[in-house]
Each structure stands twice: as C-alpha cells, then as structure tokens.
Design brief:
Helices cover 30% and strands 26% of the residues. The protein has 182 residues and is α+β, with helices and mostly antiparallel strands. Helix 4 crosses helix 5 (149-157). The protein is globular and about 40 Å long. The protein starts with 9 loop residues before the first strand and ends with a strand. It binds coenzyme A. Coenzyme A binds at residues 39-40, 42, 109-111, 116-122, 144, 148-151, 153-154, 157.
C-alpha cells in the first residue's frame, strides 16, 4: 500500500441546508462536464434526484431501509473547510447484495471535475473507510472500470487488493478490489 498522507482542511460531512447553494453549484459544474465529456455519473446517489428541489433531494439522498432490491446507504460530501467548498461525494452501501458483490461494491465515489488530480479521491476513500468501520464493514469491496486509471489508483492507494474482473451486460470490464478494514 502506498503511504498516504492525511490532508488538512478536508472532512466528510452529511448534506444539510447550509450547503444548498454550494451543492447546486457543484452539481451544475459536474453535469455540464458529464454532458460535454460523456463521463459517468458516480456516485449515482447524488445525481438520482434534481437538486433544484432541495428539500426533496435532501430527504431522498439516502436510503434508510432496504427497498426494491436496494440496500441502505449513506452519502457523505468531501468539504474543504478553508474554502467552504464541496469537492466530491462518496456513497457507502451498508452491505452487499448480489449485484453489488459482482460489480457495484460497498463504495461509489466521485470528485467534481475542477478538483480532480489533487489527491482528493484518495483522501475521500480513506475517510470513507473510517465510516465503513463505524458500520462494521471490515472487508470493503470497491470496484472500478478497467479503463478508469484515477479510480483504480485511488483504490490501490488505500490498500485495495485486486481479486477479479467481471464483464457487465454493456460489455465494460469491471475490476474488483478488496480492502482489509479491520
Ligand atoms: C476517478 C476520480 C474519482 C479520481 O479522483 P481524483 O481526485 O482525481 O483522484 P486522485 O487525485 O486521488 O488520484 C489518484 C491517482 O490517480 C491518478 N489519476 C487521477 N486521475 C487520472 C486520470 N484521469 N488519468 C491518469 N491518472 C489519474 C492521480 O495522478 C493519482 O496518481 P498517484 O496515486 O500515482 O499520485 C475522478 O476522476 C472522478 O470523479 N471521475 C468521475 C467519477 C468516477 O469515475 N468515479 C469512480 C467510480 S468507480
């Protein structure tokens, strides 16, 4: 495992009303980039609802109880306290169902386009692993598209051990990594 240093000024937060404007600004930047560069929507939990209806968005951000084959989850945002700026988000699935075990994993994450390649994904996963610990997830599965070098490296930086790769119905190759989180 590559030695990772702990970043000052960033921490994980749960979304609340005080971050409404900052959230909307981040999502706008992110969606524009997704359209222009045809990039993926990860973590899906922050894109599944329209944030312009903030109260609904906040209320439905996390799934408290299992429903329609979905497992309970938690979503955290990475906050730069110095700049009061949201940098990205991470979604933690509390346990694995069949589909998560195969391709989805426990953790889905993303860093907003303007803040990429500064080490934030690596730090956000490190912080997310501490949240996983609180949920008693002591073996964490994280997956990434084989072509997603940034994601792959941020997983390996956090001690991810490659187990296998699987092919999705769409033909993408997904790499599966486990992190010992005891
Ligand atoms: C993948 C993603 C989360 C990486 O975030 P990031 O903050 O840029 O990652 P980091 O800065 O921690 O970079 C980790 C490593 O990957 C490298 N890296 C990051 N993006 C890269 C890219 N596009 N190409 C090559 N290397 C890249 C960094 O240089 C760094 O290398 P190092 O460990 O050798 O220093 C970000 O690009 C993103 O949000 N993409 C869209 C959503 C997504 O794909 N999420 C992952 C879902 S599986």
């Amino acid at each position: 495992m590559k030695g990772i240093y702990v970043m000052e000024n960033v921490r994980l937060i749960k979304l609340s009303k005080e971050y409404k404007d900052e959230l909307i600004e981040m999502i706008e930047e992110w969606k524009k980039d997704q359209i222009e560069n045809n990039t993926n929507q990860s973590p899906w939990s922050i894109f599944k609802n329209d944030c312009s209806d903030f109260d609904y968005y906040l209320e439905n951000l996390e799934l408290k109880n299992p429903r329609d084959g979905l497992v309970p989850d938690s979503t955290f945002f990475l906050l730069d306290e110095k700049r009061n700026r949201l940098l990205g988000a991470v979604n933690i699935r509390h346990y694995l169902n069949e589909s998560l075990l195969r391709t989805g994993g426990h953790i889905g994450d993303g860093i907003r386009p303007s803040e990429r390649r500064k080490g934030y994904a690596t730090e956000m996963i490190r912080l997310a692993l501490l949240e996983c610990k609180k949920l008693n997830i002591d073996k964490v599965l994280i997956t990434c598209d084989k072509t997603n070098i940034g994601s792959k490296k941020s997983i390996i930086n956090n001690g991810g051990i490659f187990e296998s790769e699987v092919q999705t119905e769409e033909g993408n190759i997904i790499e599966r990594y486990w992190i010992d989180n005891k």
